Amino acid sequence: MLSQRQAPIAAIATAPGRGAVGIVRVSSPQDLTPLIDAICARQLRPREATYLPFCDAQGQAIDQGLALLFPAPHSYTGEHVLELQAHGGPVVLQLLLARCMEAGAGLNIRLAEPGEFTQRAFLNGKLDLAQAEAVSDLIDASTEAAARSAGRALAGALSKEVGELRDALIKLRMLVEATLDFPEEEIDFLQQADAMGRLAHLQARLDAVLDRTQQGALLREGIKVVLAGQPNVGKSSLLNALAGAELAIVTAVAGTTRDKVSQTIQIEGVPLHISDTAGLRDTDDEVERIGVARSWEAIADADVLLFMHDLTRVGQPAYEAEDKLISARLANVPAERILQVFNKADAAQLEGLPDGALLLSTKSGVGLAELRQRLLQQVGWHATPEGLFIARERHVQALKRTREHLVLAMAVASQEPPALDLFAEELRLSHDALGEITGTFSADELLGEIFSKFCIGK
Ligand SMILES: Nc1nc2c(c(=O)[nH]1)N(C=O)[C@@H](CNc1ccc(C(=O)N[C@@H](CCC(=O)O)C(=O)O)cc1)CN2
Ligand SMILES: Nc1nc2c(ncn2[C@@H]2O[C@H](COP(=O)(O)OP(=O)(O)OP(=O)(O)O)[C@@H](O)[C@H]2O)c(=O)[nH]1
Ligand SMILES: [Mg+2]
User: Fold this and answer.
1) Ligand 1 mutation pick, 14, 47, 76, max ligand atoms within 8 A of CB
2) Domain limits of the chain?
3) Is residue 75 lining ligand 1, measured as CB closer than 6 Å?
4) Domain 144-218+389-451 bears CATH identifier 1.20.120.430
5) What ipTM does the predicted assembly reach?
6) 32-54 burial, b for 16+ CB within 10 Å, e for fewer?
7) What is the pTM of this model?
8) Which residue has the higher pLDDT, 400 or 414?
9) Which residues fall inside 5 Å of ion ligand 3, going by CB?
């Protein structure tokens, strides 16, 4: 690992394809002069763009571009970074990258792994882990709200919240550890230092951060919504209405949809990955049967199951019989994940419906706005995107573990007599869990997992 880290790396740092300008960048702990001499044929002033020809091994110009040298440690990675800003065609950039590999052979240069520039920035203390993840989330953001929130996380919004919790935790730990050294004072400590009061305060702050982090994770991961129900109830019509486009075929024929049709839309910046599925029924049609099997798979995988009823058929014996069969099979889907909606409100009489039933007409648009709100409510979205930072499920889990150990510490402290060493240990475990977010305590394995999901050149 270490020797790998020490080799210079190179990659095309702009998305492959046609762009006006493209960048090949090199990051190296060693001095890059030999490579610069070979390609740029002159010295570069630090952090100053120089317009020059990029030379191949024969001294022929590959392109005319800007060379930019960031000497260590004042660069993105904290190492020496050379940027060759060229014309953005894929072939010229590949040529330039190949030229860097050739000219850097003596330095043992190799191609960069995905995320390796940012990983080096992390290892050299330029970014903490939460910020490094935000770099990737910024690039991958699928909504404007997600991009803005990733920008805030990159600027350190999550790190700052975590840092404040950490400081409070460290203060408490210092008090406890000091007391451990003077066992005769143990009994008084918890009262004198108001350990319980501090813990309660810390927990309240942690809960606030956890809430914001959960909202940030929703913004990043989005929600998997599956539209299901009997054939012909209007599932595909709803997908089209939500997406604002004719994505799925709609006909009056029951059994129109066979394959799952998926589309990501956004509501208040929260990405919703919506899947329309084949109507649920027993059928002799082989293709439709496979479609229905896929519907059930999608249902099992849904964050929210939007189960649709057809008001023009509710109460009819055949419809109700089918509904019973389906309901029995739905019994193992947690009730809080299911949102029941009643469609075709424009064409039916509306008596005898359950209280709070969500009425809809994909035809007239009635109930759509309410449905959007209910979808967000269902997954616990209550934030306004302004001021939010993007986060990941990993951060949520680490905060939950931090909280668990705080709660255990409180339990220990309220025993008679309190076991101060156990109290100290729970605080330490809480501190460790918190440290996983910014990467103070993170296994190599976790780091590998995180950075491998980046795009190449980042
Ligand atoms: N051309 C180019 N544009 C880019 C990047 C890049 O690597 N190259 N970035 C890549 O992601 C982002 C900018 N990130 C950067 C982060 C730090 C430094 C840097 O030079 N840091 C020094 C000096 C800081 C200062 O002067 O305040 C340092 O940290 O010491 C440069 C770019 C977006 N735009
Ligand atoms: N009156 C009325 N008709 C609707 C409404 N929504 C859908 N329909 C009609 O109901 C029929 C079935 O609509 P689809 O969207 O194809 O239904 P589906 O649930 O996807 O059907 P399958 O793919 O066969 O499972 C079509 O003729 C639609 O025009 C509505 O709100 N009101
Ligand atoms: Mg359909």
Assistant:
1) 76
2) 9-125, 144-218+389-451, 221-378
3) yes
4) yes
5) 0.86
6) beebbebbbeeebeeeeeeebbb
7) 0.87
8) 400
9) 235-236, 256-257
